[in-house]
Write a structure and sequence with these properties.
globular; Aspartate Aminotransferase, domain 2; 475 residues; 3 domains; seven-stranded mixed sheet; single chain
Length: 475
C-alpha cells in the first residue's frame, strides 16, 4: 500500500495512508491507519557513520586478520556479493514454474558439475544447508545403502581428532559412533583400524587433512581396508581448502564427500551462517540421493523427483541458493588452475606461520602441515595463564584469535588457519603479535589475564554468555 508524504500542521514531516475515500483492496478500514505516523528523518552522514561505527566495533575479515582454523573466515571477493544480489536471483521463488527459473537451474546444475569434477565423483546433491547437514545426508545415504542390501551394520568409525559434528551425524543417521584412535604421529592408527573394521562396521568418517592439519599419508590403505570389509568411506570436506587441484576424493577412494561452499568457496561465514553443504557420491550411492535431483535433458533444466530409493528431502526446497551463486561466481573467476594455486598458497601460509612460531609455542606434531597447523600453549601454565588469555590479548592487537582448545587431543591447542588470501605482511604482523604476547606472559601476566583492554566489550563469562544470552542494547 502506498504511503503519502505530507507536512503536518506543527511543521513535522510524516507519512500517512491514503484517505478513506481512496479505494483500497489490500486492507479493510479496521486495519488501516487513520492518523499520521511520524518516522525519524536521518541525514546521510548520520546513517553512514552509524553503520561504520558498528562495523568498527566488530571484527571481520575486511578489517583485519581472521586466522580461525577449521571455521575458515576466507576472503570473499565483492563480485560474489554483486552476483548474489542480481534481481534474477533474488526475486525468484522456489515454487515458480521451472520454465521461468531456467537461469537459476542452469547455475545450480553447472555448479554441481564443477564440484563433481573437483572431487572426481559421480553424483551430487546441493540441498544440505551446512557442512553438518552434509555429513548427516551422506551417512543417511550409507544407512539406506546397507538397508537396501539387508546388511544390519551398526557402527561408523570416527577418529578421535574428528570434528564434533561427526559423531552427532552418525547418531542422527541411525548408526553408533566408534572411536578410532590416532597414532603417535597424529594420524589414523591403521593397525587399530584393521582390528576395528568388523562386519558390524558400516564405514569410516575421515577428515583429510585432519584437524591437526596433517595429511593422511596412508589414505589409500585406509580406504582400501574399509572397502575390503564391504564398508564405505566418507570424507569430511571441511578441510578441502588444502586439496583443491592437488588431489581428488574419488582418487583417494572416498565414496562420499561434503563441500563447505561457505568456507572453501568464499561465502562469508561467521556467527553461524549462511552455509551450504553439497554432497558428492559414487555411482553406487546415486539411488539414495535426496530428492529432487537437478537434471538437464539437453534443452531444459529441471527437478527429478523420481528417485524411488531416495532418503527424501533434507532441506526445505532445493538448498541455500544464494550461497551457490557466490560459489559459482568464485569458481568461474579462479578456474581450475586458480584452485590449485589457492591450495598451494593456503599450505604455504600455514607452514610459514607454524614454522615461525614453533620455537615460541609448542608444536606437538612436527610434520609439515597443510592449510592449518596446531600449536600448544601448555608452557603458559608456568605463568598461571591459559591459551584463552593469549586469544583475548590478541584482540588488543586488532587481530582475531585462532581456534582454541580444539582438536581435543592437543592440550591448550591453538589451531591457526591463515587462508590463501593473506599477504606475508599480514602473517608477519600476526607472528610478531604472538611473540610479543608470549613476552608479556612472562613479564606482565596480569596484562593477559585481564585482556582485552581496548575492545568495546571486555572479557565475558563464556559459560554464562551461552546459557544467559543477552543481546539487548544497553540503554
Amino acid at each position: 500500500m502506498e504511503l503519502i508524504f505530507e507536512q503536518t500542521k506543527d511543521g513535522r514531516r510524516g507519512y500517512s495512508l491514503p484517505s478513506p475515500d481512496v479505494p483500497s483492496h489490500e486492507l479493510t478500514a479496521a486495519f488501516r491507519r487513520q492518523t499520521t505516523t511520524h518516522l525519524p528523518e536521518v541525514s546521510e552522514p548520520q546513517i553512514i557513520r552509524h553503520f561504520v561505527n558498528l562495523s568498527v566495533m566488530n571484527h571481520h575479515v575486511d578489517k583485519n586478520f581472521y586466522p580461525l582454523g577449521s571455521c575458515t573466515m576466507k576472503y570473499n571477493p565483492k563480485i560474489n556479493e554483486e552476483t548474489a544480489r542480481l534481481h534474477g536471483y533474488t526475486r525468484i521463488h522456489p515454487l515458480q514454474p521451472q520454465s521461468t527459473t531456467q537461469g537459476a537451474l542452469a547455475l545450480m546444475y553447472g555448479l554441481g558439475e564443477y564440484l563433481k569434477a573437483i572431487v572426481n565423483l559421480d553424483g551430487i546433491t546441493l540441498q544440505p544447508a551446512a557442512g553438518a547437514q552434509g555429513e548427516f545426508t551422506a551417512i543417511s545415504m550409507f544407512k539406506a545403502y546397507f538397508n537396501k542390501k539387508k546388511e544390519a551394520r551398526k557402527y561408523i568409525l570416527v577418529p578421535d581428532s574428528a570434528h564434533g559434528t561427526n559423531p552427532a551425524s552418525v547418531n542422527f543417521s541411525g548408526f553408533q559412533p566408534l572411536t578410532l584412535p590416532s597414532s603417535d604421529n597424529g594420524l589414523v592408527d591403521v593397525e587399530k583400524l584393521i582390528a576395528l573394521m568388523t562386519p558390524e562396521v558400516a564405514g569410516l568418517m575421515l577428515t583429510n587433512p585432519n584437524t591437526l592439519g596433517l595429511f593422511e599419508r596412508n589414505v589409500k590403505k585406509i580406504t582400501g581396508t574399509v572397502h575390503d570389509k564391504g564398508g564405505l568411506v566418507y570424507l569430511d570436506g571441511a578441510n578441502l581448502n588444502a586439496l583443491l587441484g592437488i588431489t581428488r576424493a574419488g582418487d583417494m577412494g572416498f565414496d562420499a564427500v561434503h563441500f563447505n561452499l561457505h568456507k572453501t568457496f568464499s561465502t562469508p561465514h561467521g556467527g553461524g551462517g549462511p552455509g551450504s553443504g553439497p554432497v558428492a557420491v559414487i555411482n553406487d550411492l546415486l539411488p539414495f540421493l535426496p530428492v529432487p535431483t537437478i537434471v538437464y535433458d539437453g534443452k531444459r533444466y529441471g527437478f527429478d523427483f523420481d528417485v524411488p530409493d531416495s532418503i527424501g528431502k533434507v532441506q526445505t526446497f532445493y538448498g541455500n541458493f544464494l550461497v551457490m551463486v557466490r560459489a559459482y561466481t568464485y569458481l568461474r573467476l579462479v578456474g581450475a588452475a586458480g584452485l590449485r594455486n589457492i591450495s598451494k598458497s593456503a599450505i604455504l601460509n600455514a607452514n610459514y606461520v607454524i614454522q615461525s612460531l614453533k620455537d615460541d609455542y609448542l608444536l606437538p606434531y612436527t610434520d609439515y602441515c597443510m592449510h592449518e597447523g596446531v600449536l600448544s600453549g601448555r608452557q603458559l601454565k608456568e605463568s598461571g595463564l591459559r591459551t584463552l588469555d593469549v586469544a583475548k590479548r590478541l584482540l588488543d592487537y586488532g587481530l582475531h584469535a585462532p581456534t582454541i582448545y580444539f582438536p581435543l587431543i592437543v592440550s591448550e591447542a591453538l589451531m591457526i588457519e591463515p587462508t590463501d588470501s593473506e599477504s606475508k605482511e599480514t602473517l608477519d604482523e600476526f607472528v610478531n603479535a604472538m611473540k610479543k604476547i608470549l613476552e608479556e606472559a612472562k613479564e606482565q601476566p596480569d596484562l593477559l589475564r585481564n585482556a582485552p583492554h581496548n575492545t568495546p566489550v571486555r572479557r565475558l563469562d563464556e559459560v554464562k554468555a551461552i546459557k544467559q544470552l543477552n543481546i539487548k542494547w544497553k540503554t
